[in-house]
Design a protein that fits this description.
- The structure holds two protein chains of two kinds.
- Helix content of chain A is about 70%, strand content about 0%.
- By secondary structure, chain A is mainly alpha-helical.
- The longest helix of chain A has about 35 residues.
- Chain A starts with 12 loop residues before the first helix and ends in a 7-residue tail after the last helix.
- Chain B is mainly alpha-helical.
- Chain B is about 75% helix and about 0% strand.
- In chain B, about 40% of the residues are buried.
- Classes of the chains: A mainly alpha, B mainly alpha.
- Chains A and B meet through helix 4, helix 5, helix 8 and helix 10 of A and helix 1, helix 6, helix 7, helix 11 and helix 12 of B.
Chain lengths: ~300, ~325
């Protein structure tokens, strides 16, 4: 119910969010780059000038257009097999985007559920859950992901599962900490007194109030997921050739680094720009969602 | 304080058991029959299979197997590598100094540049230096380090020919390595040029591995400094007429260091994860490369044992950081 008659109305939550988000110029730039990335990821195959796996054997290792020997047929040059770099980068965007979406969805859903459980369950269940999370966190994330992929077999899907498992404890800890803080508050007690059952308390009363830090974490783990998937691809444990995944492209190009700088530079630049944009956005999200930083 | 130490030590035990459970379970969840995998022999007969089953202890109940594994681990028995037939424990500790040397250098690099960068950014909040430093830090934080390594190789090894591409020292040098730290051993050997060669080999891996911790430390120092600079006692110091150098360098930084030290301690896991990539790219003969090679060679005892030892190393460092934190910040002991 909004009061439209009074002169000063409280802005809607989305509007308020945008007001604070907009103040961070870097975050807005990050958002634009991310939007472009998402667009390329969704429509990649229709934008790309060539088929990303087509091999133009008479044009192998052709440099980008501004260098001698390059031309506009292959604007960013070709790789050792004569595949168009630009097309591969464009189509590769969807793998990174997909990795981010899937990993964050799995890790966040699982982590939030387990975190809620830990926050509401009896003390001993909480202790057991948190010790299990400690165990997962004791392993360096990339190493655990590598070993998990070694067990499951190298592929992009398995890499995503492994990264999601590795990232999940962060969500569990975050959710549990927020739940612990919120549970003490009066509105939760009053909901309980009013007869709200446990599921209602968990998902409808408490969870919405814990979401702010989780959203920020989601943005940050989106970039971690992209980086880790690329690292696994680079080590030969992620997407397999000829998939134009950016990390896998770098691995394929490694032996040509001293002869053809472009086959190495562009895939890495694509990863860096994407991750940077998401991190910029994450900083903005944190500023906009963290009530402590708000000046109102 | 003793109470705090004991309580913290107690939480170490269940985590340690959990970590051993994971490494114990690892070989049993591999696709395929673990005995066939571990035997590495083709065309096993039924008798040979039963023999191997008894030899690996797979014929006994699972909890007995775990108990034996756990007692073995505590005595330093992690099995032998399939490939080299040497004990995993010995291989780990033979390679560990290389990783430790690289990680320490990377950490020193990160702290020596990251701390001043964070302080300068905080003191110049909102001005040019702050923006420039923090943008650079965010780029460093977002860096795919395997790509960063390749770029540095292109520029410094390929174009400028300043640094070698791989290894720890040029092959022309040979000397005993009592400490395992190439920098120390090459100095101790007294051979001309050995130390310089070791340093040249170390530079690029150090920069690559130190980049992300550097960015994290710079960002963390800046925000910790900003928080401290708003405190009343800083205003008091300023009112007393102390110079800004002394206020920033002594009064503020000392208190801002507490969260920074925690971040430095907690970066050890990140460092080891980064070491996997860095060592693989620079053919650095350390734990990270050893693990990746073993995964590709399907040398499962090494993967299993290495996983466990690395996790324990991270846990010990985290425990130490927690203890140090208790020493620096008495408030935390009461929790």
């Amino acid at each position: 119910m909004t009061d439209t008659t009074s002169a000063v109305t409280r802005p809607g939550p989305l509007r308020e969010f945008w007001f604070y988000f907009r103040e961070n110029r870097g975050a807005v730039i990050g958002l634009w780059i991310f939007a472009a990335f998402a667009f390329v990821a969704l429509f990649g195959p229709w934008i790309a000038p060539h088929d990303p796996t087509a091999q133009f054997r008479d044009a192998t290792l052709q440099p980008p257009f501004w260098q001698e020997g390059g031309d506009w047929t292959y604007p960013l040059g070709t790789d050792p097999l004569g595949r168009d770099m630009l097309s591969r980068l464009i189509v590769g965007a969807r793998f990174s985007f997909f990795v981010g979406i899937v990993v964050v969805s799995i890790a966040a859903t699982g982590g939030i559920l387990v975190g809620l459980l830990a926050g509401f369950a009896p003390k001993w269940v909480d202790t057991v859950i948190m010790r299990i999370m400690d165990v997962i966190l004791a392993f360096p994330s990339l190493l655990l992901a590598l070993v998990l992929v070694a067990i499951l077999g190298p592929s992009l899907t398995n890499a995503m599962i492994a990264i999601a498992i590795v990232l999940q404890p962060h969500y569990v800890r975050l959710t549990r900490a927020s739940v612990m803080a919120e549970r003490q508050k009066d509105y939760v007690t009053s909901a309980k007194v009013a007869g709200a059952g446990l599921p209602r308390l968990m998902f409808i009363t408490v969870l919405p109030n814990c979401l702010a830090p989780i959203i920020v974490q989601a943005a940050l783990s989106f970039s971690t997921a992209i980086l880790d998937a690329a690292a696994l691809g680079f080590l030969g444990m992620g997407a397999q050739p000829p998939t134009p995944e950016w990390g896998t492209m770098l691995a394929e190009a490694r032996e040509f680094i001293l002869r053809a700088w472009w086959v190495v530079t562009f895939p890495g630049l694509a990863i860096l720009v994407t991750v940077l944009a998401i991190n910029l956005m994450g900083d903005g999200l944190r500023d906009a969602l963290d009530p402590k930083l708000k000046r109102s | 304080m003793l109470n705090y130490v004991l309580r913290r030590l107690l939480t170490f035990v269940p985590t340690f058991i959990g970590v051993t459970l994971i490494s114990f379970g690892f070989i049993r969840v591999l696709p395929g029959d673990p005995i066939i995998v571990m035997a590495g022999e083709r065309g096993l007969t039924a008798e040979r299979y039963a023999e191997l089953e008894a030899q690996f202890g797979f014929d006994r109940p699972i909890y007995v197997q775990f108990w034996e594994y756990l007692t073995g681990v505590l005595q330093g028995d992690l099995g032998n590598s399939f490939v080299t037939k040497k004990p995993v424990w010995d291989e780990f500790f033979a390679l560990f100094p290389a990783t430790l040397e690289l990680s320490l250098c990377a950490m020193v690099f990160a702290v020596v540049i990251g701390l001043p960068a964070g302080v300068i950014a905080a003191v110049n909040r909102g001005k040019f230096y702050d923006r420039a430093l923090m943008s650079t830090a965010l780029i460093g934080y977002s860096m795919p380090i395997f790509w960063w390594a390749l770029l540095l190789i292109i520029v410094f090894s390929g174009n400028l020919q300043w640094t070698p591409v791989s290894g720890r020292i040029d092959l022309i040098y040979y000397f005993p390595d009592p400490t395992g730290f190439m920098l120390i051993d090459s100095l101790a050997s007294g051979q001309k040029g050995a130390f310089a060669s070791a340093v040249r080999h170390l530079v690029l891996p150090t920069i690559v591995l130190g980049t992300i911790p550097l960015a994290v430390i710079a960002r963390q120092t800046r925000s910790a400094m900003l928080e401290v600079l708003g405190e009343d006692y800083i205003r008091t110091a300023r009112a007393k007429g102390l110079g800004s150098g002394r206020i920033n360098g002594v009064h503020a930084l000392r208190n801002a260091l507490i969260p920074v030290i925690t971040v430095i301690g907690l970066s050890v896991g990140t460092l080891l994860a980064g070491a996997i990539l860095t060592e693989t790219i620079f053919s650095w003969p350390g734990i990270g490369k050893w693990m990746v090679d073993s995964i590709f060679r399907r040398d499962y005892p090494v993967v299993q044992g290495g996983l466990l030892l690395i996790a324990v190393a991270v846990m010990i460092v985290n425990l130490t950081v927690d203890m140090l934190y208790g020493v620096i910040n008495p408030k935390i002991r009461k929790r």
